Predict the 3D structure of the following.
Amino acid sequence: MRPMDILALVAASLLLAPLAAWLGGRSSPLVAAVPALLFAGFLAFLPDIRAGAAPSEVHSWIPSLGIDVSFRIDGLSLLFALLITGIGTLVFLYASAYLQGHERLPRFYVALTLFMGAMLGAVLADDLVLLVVFWELTSLTSFLLIGTTPESAEARRSAQQGLLVTVAGGLALLAAVILLGSGLGTYSISEILVRGDAVAALPAAPAIVVLLAIGAFAKSAQVPLHSWLPNAMVAPTPVSAFLHSATMVKLGVYLLARFNPVFEGYELWTLLLTGVGGATMIAGAVLALRETDLKRVLAYSTVVSLGTLVLLIGLPGETSALAFAAFLFGHALYKACLFLVAGIVDHETGTRDSTALGGLRHAMPVTAVAAGLGAMSMAGLPLFFGFVGKELIYETGLEGAALLALAVALVANAAMVVVAGVVAVRCFLGPRVETLAPAHDPGFRMLAGPVVLAVLGLVFGIAPWIAGDGLLTFAAQEISGRRADATLALWHGFTPALALSALTLLIGVAAFLRWDVLRGALSRIRQIDAWGPDRGYDALLLGLQRIAVWQTNAIQTGSLRVYVGRVLTIVAFAGAPALYLLGGFAFPLTDGGWLRPDLVLAAALIVAALAVVGARGFVAGIVAAGMVGFAVALLFLLNGAPDLAFTQFSVEAIAIVILLAIVGRLPFRQQDARTRPQRLRDGAIAVGLGVSATCVLLTVLAIPFDGRLSDYFRVASVPEAHGRNLVNVILVDFRALDTLGEISVLGLAAVAAAAVVAGVRRRMSEKRT
């Protein structure tokens, strides 16, 4: 395919949202054709990747800043694109039956399709700014998807939490992007990857590493930013299977994997990723063992898996990169499968509580087979791709002598065996437990997804080289920056890694057999709930609300005088000092003495302004204000602007007449309610503002006049605007839109005033009658 097809595929993933809404709104299975077509389009790039090519495409976007709309497909981005569209196809098909009859189906499919497009744009973007745009679009669309049922308070809270956490991480990512792009002079990701030494030499490199990590940790639910992920399980099962197992939550680890060749030799990078990744694995394992809700159990196991991926990125070597790619691929297959199975169980039985389920294999044999295959891959049993990924994890730890990482992986993988047993053994084996609804296998549309994913986990487990040689090794090459010597294989002989796998199964099976006791003991640790990040999130929001209330009470006094006074105070006492401290103050030279007419008028203006301030009544104040206006008009006249002067004369005369007419009809009783301290305060503000404005104007007048603009208007007024009055030409032609806007504002104000007057008159006439 031509490189031009990359942009076409990304654009199609966004523009097909109306078609998906139309098909999905009718619960048509053809809605799955939308991601299926995209999957076929990306699959066509596989020969290019295997040949060592990396198709790319660049379009200018903001050339002044060096920002482009650029896309690039390599092994890593193609792996993500195929997972997004491939699993998306099965999820769309599943949703067409699972959500049949839902009242908001068109909106749901629009959000789901836009989310898919945003994910594709993020993993294919070769420009940092473009990546941030798609990154934030995934947060926005996931917010809509988590809040599919906005009438539910729990859904609203979970959607808000997911949005705030991921968007906050996105702000950190944006800061890192600005530091990185401005430091290197380019926002091209492929160029940055080539200049790894220059990135490490940047003074802001530590800040970039921390900010990038924060953005990725928030998106990929790393401790302590993980609580939004299990809470998002209030979303419908298709959302959980698509967003929170195979796509969105892996966008953070994609970012870390993408920049690993640049920062892998940076000690801070290694410490952050291994430390946070390991802590996330342990925390997720503990929290998963406390849960009984199938979707939350799987969500916490996803937290464990995300921590594993982050840990693998932090470990050096080609084997860790291959382990990352294999584990990412295997996890997407079995976790999406098990999420879809959990949705089927909930849909058919009316409950997701694993303690209230059992013996479903008789009523739901096909679902039971899919659940069993997916669970065995998750547990890492031989013949399944999950086993291949787990073996590589242990090989990575053994090669680097990372004993602590091995211990953490052993505990986390044993917990995954327990979770697999809870989903498959607990629910489908054992004696039959009566459920709220008579259980049975659903139709083809809901079964296709889990069955296909489970079978693929078995096929790729038996023949892992199909996925490895075809794609995963090329993805690993992008993560480590060099080609991996290791290959994917089901059997490596009797090795220490095999011994660790066997030990993992023994510990996991033993823990599963004692799961009720273990879960009860962990559930009684109240500190987890009382001091966990979820409670911290609520406390943070409550604190922000209290600060907002205090701030509002302190600032929003309801007094216009206070508001104006604060604004003028800032203007008065911020401008002139800054001008003085920066050495910008200058005094213009005078060449006509101190008895020039304009200076005399300036003195008259000061006297008139003092008269306004000292006026005891409204009539005297209005007349004094009019004198100020007349003095300004004389200044216009003396400086060669007679048209402005006559306009000012007319406006001032009419304004004085109108104001006097209005004041004469208003029942004013009190002249001025201000106390003496208030008068002194207002006087100080006025003097400060006057001094500040005077300093700024004198400084401007001291600058040599640049007549290029006035010369242009003078030359262009007749041939281009057909007018000799420069002021009129400027207002009507050169800044016509500005003048039109001002006229529109005045027109709207007049209409509003007329409506208010008409309303008052109507109410007065109604009272009389």
Summary: The beta strands are 56-62, 67-72. The chain has a mean pLDDT of 86.
